[in-house]
Amino acid sequence: MKIGLVLILFITAVVNRSIAQDYFSYRSSLHLKQSVGINLPITKLLKGIPTDRLIHHSDLSDYVQALSATYFWNKRWGATISFQVVSENDYEDPDRFNQSIIEEFEKNYYITIDAISNSRNFYPSGGDFNQISTGVTYRIEKNRLFVYPKLSAIFNSIQTESKNINLKEKNSNNILTVNYDCGKKVSNYLSVSPGATFGYKITKWLYATADVQFAYSKPNLVYTKTTTNVVTNAVNKEEIRYDQSLVGFSVGAGLTFALFHRKMN
To answer: Which residues contact 18 (CB under 8 A, 6 or more apart)?
Structure first.
């Protein structure tokens, strides 16, 4: 009997504490978040061919979300904008393109490869670039626990490089020039990204978060390989297309600072 009474009192105390702590829910109108994570590919852009090394892209990458700001205009709905730096894990240096060309042609040709045509100064850190995303967030909270489903649009850029190769056939006067060109230095494309943030409210002002996000995009990147016979003026053009659909997901963790607490409708 005493054990039952103690159990009832304990459960009552837990329930009362839970109700009392409901001030944690739906109170903050501005969230500022920082996080780190990894982007994992389901489908890949790169094909395992020499021109891959002229494309500043990595199918596998780490990210640092420098700042994500969400403003909730009511109890449930908010608008989010995020800025993050992506560090490319499997990006191959373009000098390896030169090596692949040498391996392909050195048996029959003397080879001269021009310097990189397009400057890499757009990416001063060598393998990093920035992403901007914007979208809407829905808020579900219960005391200290929460989940925020969201739908975002991510603005991406891929830088490309051009290459010119001069080939002098051995034991012959035949001379070829081979040009690889994408037509533009930077290719922009949009990703559609559903996801969710899960977390626990450590205090009224500080939350621990975990992020899961999927992304779909379809870049339309086309390289033209132009081979010209300098002696006969014969020209042959070949298209190398990178237009497959890209699907991937990311996982990460971070901290959120919850500001401007008030009762919301």
So the answer is: 143
